[in-house]
Task: inverse folding
């Protein structure tokens, strides 16, 4: 254990020493927080139980709605889009200054985003075929594949907004916010068609993305705008939930009439604004924490494999669930219905096991995200370069 700690400390010092002095490490820390929040949220509020004879998806939020505040902490996608807007705006501006074409810039951005997706699609296509060939019911296989692929919707939205960066980088967040408000009024107050809500998939996430671009332009150099944004977002969310009947949960709940996330509602967007404002306000303390080599190394390493972690975390959970069935006994917190605090307590005990399974997936598939580079000599510089640049030098931004 002492040797392992010493090796980790040595790696942390190398990463810290290789990091440019002008790097805004808080951007990487916020991105790591956002990804890990989504992973932990899925592991805690998504359950595969076997009470009906086959795997069925359920959520503790359905039977214990008072756990809704859990979703306020773990629904962190708005922070991810906030960081994406900042990095995208700065990266594109620097690439233009370096003479890099839009096609080159977006090709590199999307290549890094979608290389690891190809590995998931190939593996699960083969796995689904093998399950069907072995006699597993189509409905069961479909449910498993859906559980793996459904979180990928956000990658498509993020890729689309990234591609639109030259057009939306200077767009005020008020415009997409207004679109979300109009769509919700049309849907819920005027009896409009449900399908119109899907316009909010773009408009809703464009709000934090353009907020991040405004951050890149220096809009939050002082604390006052972020404080006002926090107050407005928090008050707006409370008013919409308490006075307008929006769900308190910021994630989808099976069986609920309305989901705040699928598609995004005005309540989810208002909550996201408050969450982004809070992220902007903690930059000072977070920057001090990130000056510690070991803390910074952890954030940098998560960023290096962010997409791998995100894409394989559901597979890791399902693998543990499937292996647990080999014993012939339904294990608490793994195969049982999530309808009590006892289930939540048992579920917490499974999180280290899910993490170990995810570590195996990471070891097997991380090279797809990192472009197949395995040379140890390039390891530290690769970590620093891939983690994301808040204020990149022109040449580094052109490469990114």
Result:
């Amino acid at each position: 254990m002492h040797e392992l700690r010493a090796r980790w400390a040595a790696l942390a010092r190398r990463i810290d020493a290789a990091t440019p002095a002008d790097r805004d490490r808080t951007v990487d820390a916020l991105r790591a927080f956002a990804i890990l929040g989504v992973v932990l949220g899925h592991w805690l509020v998504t359950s595969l139980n076997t009470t009906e004879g086959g795997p069925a998806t359920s959520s503790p939020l359905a039977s214990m709605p008072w756990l809704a505040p859990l979703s306020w902490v773990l629904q962190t996608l708005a922070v991810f889009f906030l960081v994406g807007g900042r990095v995208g705006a700065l990266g594109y501006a620097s690439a233009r200054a370096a003479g890099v074409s839009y096609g080159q810039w977006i090709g590199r951005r999307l290549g890094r985003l979608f290389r690891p997706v190809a590995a998931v699609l190939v593996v699960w296509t083969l796995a689904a075929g093998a399950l069907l060939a072995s006699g597993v019911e189509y409905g069961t296989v479909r449910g498993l594949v859906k559980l793996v692929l459904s979180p990928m919707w956000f990658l498509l939205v993020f890729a689309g907004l990234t591609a639109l960066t030259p057009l939306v980088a200077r767009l005020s967040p008020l415009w997409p916010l207004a679109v979300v408000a109009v769509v919700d009024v049309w849907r819920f107050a005027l009896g409009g068609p449900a399908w119109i809500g899907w316009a909010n998939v773009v408009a809703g996430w464009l709000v934090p993305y353009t907020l991040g671009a405004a951050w890149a332009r220096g809009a939050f150099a002082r604390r006052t705008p972020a404080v006002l944004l926090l107050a407005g977002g928090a008050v707006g969310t409370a008013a919409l939930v308490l006075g307008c009947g929006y769900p308190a949960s910021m994630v989808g709940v099976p069986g609920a009439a309305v989901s705040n996330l699928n598609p995004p509602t005005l309540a989810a967007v208002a909550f996201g604004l408050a969450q982004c404002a809070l992220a902007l306000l903690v930059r000072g303390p977070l920057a001090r924490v990130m000056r510690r080599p070991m803390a910074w190394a952890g954030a940098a390493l998560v960023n290096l494999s962010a997409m791998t972690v995100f894409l394989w975390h559901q597979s890791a959970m399902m693998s543990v669930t499937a292996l647990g069935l080999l014993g012939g006994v339904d294990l608490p917190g793994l195969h049982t219905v999530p309808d009590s605090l006892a289930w939540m307590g048992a579920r917490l005990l499974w999180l280290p096991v899910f993490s170990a399974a995810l570590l195996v997936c990471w070891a097997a598939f991380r090279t797809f995200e990192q472009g197949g580079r395995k040379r140890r000599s390039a390891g530290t510089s690769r970590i620093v370069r891939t983690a994301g640049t808040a204020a990149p030098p022109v040449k580094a931004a052109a490469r990114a």
Notes: Residues 81-281 form one domain. The CA atoms of residues 118 and 180 lie 32 Å apart. The two ends are 37 Å apart (CA to CA). Confidence is low (pLDDT under 50) at residues 373-380, 386-400.
